Amino acid sequence: MLILGNDTVRRVLDGRELEVLAAVRQAYVQHARGETALPHSVFLRFPDDTRNRIIGLPAYLGGAQAVAGMKWISSFPGNVSLGLQRASAAIVLNSMRTGNPVALLEGSTISARRTAASAALAAATLPGDTPDSGVTLVGCGVINREVLRFLRVVRPELRAVTVFDLDRERAAAFATCSDPDLTVTVATDLDQALAANRLISFATTASVPHVDLSACHPGTLVLGLSLRDVTIDGVLGAVNIVDDHDHVCRAATSLHLAEQHLGHREFITGALGDLLDTGTNHRRDPHRVTLFSPFGLGVLDLAVSALVLRVARESGLGVELTDFLPAEEAALSSTG
């Protein structure tokens, strides 16, 4: 069992944005082609605590280097006020030959960067009539910081950033720490932020829909990464692109509420994997808002984890725990 902590995972991934984008893109295409197994995520909630949760995402990603595994990720929003990250995660990868666990990776960075890569691929695949030179980030945490990093890879023309957060100090800190090559503006309210650019990323801790997107210009692409910001009216007024029709309509997401309201999913236009599989860009509707709602597929975590594991092994990184599994003799006696 190879154990890779957060410092090692970051060391591997830093500067490999293009490889992460390629891995996430390939995972989406394989999912679209039916080369994955993706059970529903398991939500562990607590009877006396409605805010916090832990989610299990089991998955299998096929292909020449097939991999299976599971991400176990917690979301405790109160951590932020304690100076801790909201989310923490562990990812287990299993051998497809024996089923044995072969690696344990700290998963918060993997999870954040696969989410950001997903958003960046959507932005690259769904261009507007004119290049997006500015982006609005709603929520100034780890996820949108990574989104900005990956957007600049696929959209190098980005020069202006508008940020908004209910915590104005966090927004100001985000602006101060951003790349000096970018012009960063802190919006005074959400409507101002939504009207500032035609590319918007939501990465908040909202649990109840609160925005109908009416402040957005026609032709705007909204990356709805936090899944629960947009009202039913906002969803139904948009062109809806998802990562998976079934997964995204669960767990009281905005699209799930829209499905319950209508009794069907016909308001969903398509899935990103299908668009990527065509190998061409798909211009977004210039007269409506396009809403990308990715539930967050476990196969994306596996794809990036496999990349990290390969590089770590090639570089001799990580801690090999040789006695994690039973010795052969003990294994034979326990089954005999």
Summary keywords:
Rossmann fold, 336 residues, 2 domains, eight-stranded parallel beta sheet, alpha/beta, eight-stranded mixed beta sheet, ornithine cyclodeaminase, domain 1
Report on the architecture of this protein.
With 336 residues, the protein is of the alpha/beta class. It folds into 2 domains: 2-110 and 298-320, 2-Layer Sandwich (ornithine cyclodeaminase, domain 1); 127-293, Rossmann fold (3-Layer(aba) Sandwich). It has 12 helices and 16 strands. It has helices at 6-13, 17-32, 108-125, 142-154, 168-177, 190-196, 232-236, 245-248, 254-262, 272-278, 298-315, 328-335; strands spanning 2-4, 36-37, 42-46, 49-61, 67-75, 87-94, 101-106, 134-138, 160-164, 183-186, 199-202, 221-224, 239-242, 268-271, 290-293, 319-320. Strands 1, 2, 3, 4, 5, 6, 7 and 16 form an 8-stranded mixed sheet that branches. Helix 2 (17-32) crosses helix 3, helix 2 crosses helix 11 (298-315) and helix 3 crosses helix 4. The longest helix has 18 residues, at 108-125.
